Amino acid sequence: MSILINKDTKVIVQGFTGKEGTFHAEQCLAYGTKIVGGVTPNKGGQEHLGQPVFNTVEEAVKNTGATVSMIFVPPAFVGDAVMEAAEAGIELAVIITEGAPVKDMQMAKSYATKHGMKTLGPNCPGIITAEECKIGIMPGMIFKKGSVGLISKSGTLTYEGANQVCNEGFGITTAVGIGGDPIIGLSYKQLLPMFEADPETKCIVMIGEIGGDLEIQAAKLIKESITKPVVAFIAGQTAPKGKTMGHAGAIVSGSAGTAAEKMAALEAAGVTVVVSPAEIGKAVTKVMANK
Amino acid sequence: MNIHEYQAKQIFAKYGVPTPKGIMAESVPAAVKAAEQLSGPIWVVKAQIHAGGRGLGGGVKLAKSIEEVRTLSEEILGMTLVTHQTTTEGKLVQKLYIEEGADIKAEYYLSVVLDRKLEMPLIVASTEGGMNIEDVAANSPEKIVKVPIDPAIGFQSFHGRELAFGLGITDKVEQKNIISFAQKLFKVYTENDAEMIEVNPLIRTGDGEFLALDGKMGFDNSALGRHPDIAAMRDLSEEDADEVEAAKYGLSYVALDGEIGCMVNGAGLAMGTMDTINYMGGTPANFLDVGGSANAQTVAKGFEIILKNPNVKAIFVNIFGGIVRCDRIANGIIEATKITDVNVPVIVRLDGTNAPEAAEILKNANISNLIVGNDLGDGAAKAVAAAKGE
């Protein structure tokens, strides 16, 4: 078992024939991901990496039965690509592209939600179910199959955390990079209950960062409804105070989004919070031994 | 990206958001000339820096004559202004904004920001104008009015009514004016991909008009490509020179006041590395994210920028190679130590793809001040020890 994706998940790639799209689609195929085609306007009918290319997502979905789209289009076209995927009936869009304008993401996410499509990212490493399906840019070989679910805002900290968990002998069920942009798709709030419901996941690692209040919301949810042990790290305890001009952002959420505030909220919810990411692996070993 | 008050007011003017008349000046004679072109009998001389709290810091003053405009301009231009939003070193004032005095009957606060929880823009307003809005939110949250606006429908009349009634504005002319002001400001926000707009204070005049007495704007950097006019407003002198230089090479750098230079791939791991150094009893000298494609050139540039800081006693290179192969990065580091004179111990931790090969390459390179860290914890511990001269 796993969450969201497994060995049978059919995936298309938007921005399939571009440099990034090509490189990473190739890596995903090598990992065993069922990439069944891709979309590049005006290249429909061609074949790329042994898979068919379509002009539109609608056509790709009709012909391949894909349910997930991995998006690599340039930043200015991300909003459009996400809305096209939603319209075509895609169930999950994994948005890898970095630098999509926030306004575009607001519109696109709101439209996706209306169409019942889940989104992940933008500006994230993607999602991987160990040894089954990789939809993203993470190095596949560090994710060994196991019993720990991982959710992270940061790309390289996802690798760091997964590597430690695997070195401690546990392995990963599914690891999800949610990204740290102002507007993101799936977050702790939706993913924690999925891991809670997944029988193979025995422990959850969540990696957060300073800014926003997603981790505070997660703490509340963990307290109320997550019974599996959670290990957390919040990056940015030593980061300098933001050099912003106005401070209205902090007022809106009613929280300054500091690491200390988030760590305290998670600790109060019964989470094992580590002060350094170097301690993630050991903390997992400890909570698994206490189970 | 942030801009100056005078630039924000130029944008406001384009959209018909009312502001007092004003002219930007970069010298005392230009300031005097500006005052002569504007109507008196009162002028305001305002320091233009990218930070709030200018008034309290002595950067905004009233002049009752042209002569006083001259005296005040001499005083403010070239001063170093320290406010609660600058560093303790403050910011050098290089530009002034000379503005006509306004007939202030009441002061309000108005801003447009992104509400990350609602995932839509939010108008925040208060009757407590001219105050620090964070204090207002902490001490009298009932005085803050919040109106979220779904971009799919845009600013509707009911949004305006919620705002006007929320601020206790009952006069019909005043209602019409505040609604029109907010509607135009919202248009400025959406059409320019602003990250935030803050007008504090927003004033009401004796005639029931609303004017933006101040204006702060920040923009979504990801959207600057479609706003070349705004991108052109960037004032590099307001930004940290090392950060600007680093950005040219795709590096994201922020100086801190510790002793251990850090070079890491990925912002999250970079912050996590700083946290680990701190946890082990050391102090990070900087945040440096080399990005996803670290190579010899970027690593060399990173060393150069880190070593400009005289406090640096050791450097910790912490790379988790994903798609990037560690053996290539190891070669990059060796190459970089040849290009740049690195005179402090360098602790290198490379993990991920081809890590064993990388360790072998570093070992065989025989660089005397290069120490290999086996994992994040080990590397950080060695860096802390090296910085202490152990």
Describe the protein:
The complex is a heterodimer of chains A (291) and B (390). Chain A has 291 residues and is an alpha/beta fold. Chain A is 36% helix and 22% strand. Chain A is built from 10 helices and 14 strands. The radius of gyration of chain A is 19 Å and the shape is globular. Residues 243-251 of chain A have low confidence and may be disordered. Chain B has 13 helices and 19 strands. Chain B has 3 domains: 21-101, ATP-grasp fold, A domain (Dna Ligase, domain 1); 103-237, ATP-grasp fold, B domain (D-amino Acid Aminotransferase, Chain A, domain 1), CATH 3.30.470.20; 241-387, 3-Layer(aba) Sandwich (Rossmann fold). The mean pLDDT of chain B is 91. The two termini of chain B are 42 Å apart.
Q: Could you outline the blueprint of secondary structure elements for this entry?
A:
The complex is a heterodimer of chains A (291) and B (390).
Chain A (H helix, E strand, L loop, with lengths): L9 E5 L4 H13 L2 E6 L7 E2 L2 E4 L2 H8 L3 E4 L6 H10 L4 E4 L6 H13 L3 E3 L5 E4 L3 E4 L8 E8 L2 H13 L4 E6 L10 H10 L5 E7 L4 H12 L4 E6 L12 H6 L5 H10 L3 E2 L6 H10 L2
Parallel strand pairs in A: 1-2, 1-5, 2-4, 5-6, 6-7, 10-11, 10-12, 12-13, 13-14
Antiparallel strand pairs in A: 3-4, 8-9, 8-11
Helix pairs in contact in A: 3-4, 5-10, 6-7, 7-9
Chain B lengths: L1 E2 L1 H10 L7 E4 L2 H10 L5 E5 L12 E4 L2 H11 L3 E2 L9 E2 L3 E5 L5 E10 L4 E7 L6 H7 L4 E5 L8 H10 L5 H20 L2 E11 L5 E3 L3 E4 L8 H4 L9 H8 L3 E4 L4 E5 L2 H13 L6 E4 L6 H12 L6 E8 L4 H14 L6 E7 L2 H11 L4 E3 L3 H12 L3
Parallel strand pairs in B: 15-17, 17-18, 18-19
Antiparallel strand pairs in B: 1-13, 2-7, 3-4, 3-7, 5-6, 8-9, 8-11, 9-10, 11-12, 11-13, 14-16
Helix pairs in contact in B: 2-3, 5-6, 10-11, 11-12
